[in-house]
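Q: What residues go here?
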């Protein structure tokens, strides 16, 4: 089938090709009646403007790339949806790339976004990402990093104070009377997990509570690892009375393991999660957790990126924008002996 051209649209609408171009690119005012004739002709012919040609002229693709480590994780699904909403409201299409916690895949997506000359990238790393960000930065594409820290020389960063959030969650369990408090961490090389463990240790140390090393077990931020590590903790000779799990996906796995082992949550063991994904309030028992400000994080990341896109010619000093997580108390935690 012949591909419709701007000339076909002009002929059908009874106007010049220049007028059609002004309507498509909004480069000059066109009488409403004329504009409507052009739009109707485009619709009748099924004509779609050549966006590549247009972007070559304007230097913009009105497209933002977003890379997340695991789109099946409801935390990333939520923040990606919010970023897509904000981007769309500001006239940008958002290309979502899922790196599946795989550095090679992350590298390929960075190359893809560079080749597509997206106007900017919002990036959540899957691990070691300095080289990837360097390449992106050298391509001249503005970057904002969310959630996981990278060197400020490369990008603005929007994240929460993970150490403080880890401290608040653990202090809450201590204030419930728990002394045997274990922790199921995320992947050790990821800074959010490391900082939360630091906060966990600070709260215990402040209350002079010792931490047997077998109480700190490593997951990978996915369901199964939460189930596996909780099983391991429940089989310890002196099992913990509370477990701080460093994300809700693993905490759901931990609740499932406790149930399978006949351990009641929270009567026998309190479970505390992190993220406050949509499922957490719907679980039975509903999950106590640390709520991440995903709405604020998404809005700030998009606003920062759009500012960087608009002012690429202006020297810009990258900053770290630190937000705070909030304690959400639900039914999966209770006072010791309560
Ligand atoms: O659930 C995924 C975890 O990794 C979240 O806590 C988020 O902070 C990300 O870093």
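A:
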């Amino acid at each position: 089938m012949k591909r419709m051209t701007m000339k076909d649209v002009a002929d059908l609408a009874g106007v010049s090709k220049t007028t059609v171009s002004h309507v498509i690119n909004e480069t000059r005012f066109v009488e409403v009646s004329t504009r409507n004739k052009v739009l109707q002709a485009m619709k009748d012919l099924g004509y779609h403007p050549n966006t590549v040609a247009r972007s070559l002229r304007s230097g913009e693709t009105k497209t933002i790339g977003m890379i997340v480590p695991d789109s099946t994780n409801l935390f990333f699904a939520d923040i990606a949806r919010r970023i897509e909403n904000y981007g769309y409201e500001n006239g940008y299409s958002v290309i979502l790339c899922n790196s599946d916690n795989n550095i090679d895949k992350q590298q390929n997506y960075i190359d893809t976004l560079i080749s597509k000359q997206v106007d900017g990238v919002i990036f959540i790393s899957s691990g070691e990402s300095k080289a990837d960000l360097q390449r992106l930065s050298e391509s001249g594409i503005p970057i904002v990093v969310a959630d996981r820290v990278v060197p400020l020389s490369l990008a603005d960063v929007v994240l929460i104070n993970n150490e403080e959030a880890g401290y608040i969650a653990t202090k809450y369990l201590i204030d419930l009377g728990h002394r045997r408090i274990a922790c199921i961490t995320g992947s050790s090389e990821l800074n959010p997990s490391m900082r939360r463990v630091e906060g966990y240790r600070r709260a215990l140390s402040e209350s002079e509570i010792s931490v047997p090393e077998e109480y700190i077990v490593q997951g990978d931020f996915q369901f199964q690892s939460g189930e596996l590590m909780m099983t391991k903790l429940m089989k310890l000779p002196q099992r913990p009375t509370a477990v701080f799990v460093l994300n809700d996906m693993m905490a759901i796995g931990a609740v499932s393991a406790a149930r399978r082992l006949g351990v009641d949550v929270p009567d026998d063991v309190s479970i505390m999660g992190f993220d406050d994904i949509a499922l957490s309030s719907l679980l039975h028992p509903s999950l106590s957790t640390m709520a991440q400000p995903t709405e604020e994080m998404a809005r700030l990341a998009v606003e920062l990126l759009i500012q960087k896109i608009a002012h690429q010619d202006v020297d810009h000093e990258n900053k770290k924008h630190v937000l705070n997580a909030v304690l959400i108390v639900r039914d999966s935690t209770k006072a010791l002996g309560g």
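A: Context that may help when evaluating the design: The first helix runs from residue 6 to 13. The chain has a mean pLDDT of 92.
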